[in-house]
Amino acid sequence: MKQKTATELVQEAKQQIENLTPLQVKKELEKDGTVLIDIRESEELKQNGKIPGSVHAPRGMIEFYADPSLPYHKPEFDKTKRIILQCASGGRSALASQTLKQMGYENVAHLDGGLNAWKDAGLFIERE
Ligand SMILES: O=S(=O)([O-])[S-]
């Protein structure tokens, strides 16, 4: 099998998923039924804040949170809802979006550029 770099994996994932701008995400959050899931580590949330209304579910457990047949399942992982994943720069959320699609989540997207793009767009970040 051909070896791939992390950058190649992210680029490939981005071709197979829906990539949203910060403004598109903001608009979607104004609608009912959209769930924004922040998949960064707890430490990152403490240091850099979070997008208001996002729920936290670190990427490490995402397959287990997303599988309704497992005790780890989290209710925010709901295949009937619009799910938007977000990380710091959009790499992890691209890979995780691809994974969720493979698990049958059809209405999943991610915030391209992550929290950094959100910040650069001048949008509000909540601090603890
Ligand atoms: O995964 S990342 O783009 O936040 S480094």
TrEMBL record:
Q: Does the keyword Transferase apply?
A: yes
Q: Which GO terms fall under molecular function for this chain's record?
A: thiosulfate-cyanide sulfurtransferase activity
**Keyword terms of this UniProt record:** Transferase
Q: Which Gene3D superfamilies match?
A: Rhodanese-like domain (3.40.250.10)
Keyword Transferase annotated: yes
Q: What CDD domains does the annotation carry?
A: Polysulfide_ST (cd01447)
Looking at the record, the residues that make up the Rhodanese domain are 30-127
The protein's matches in Pfam families, at most eight in alphabetical order, are given as: Rhodanese
Q: What is this protein called?
A: Sulfurtransferase
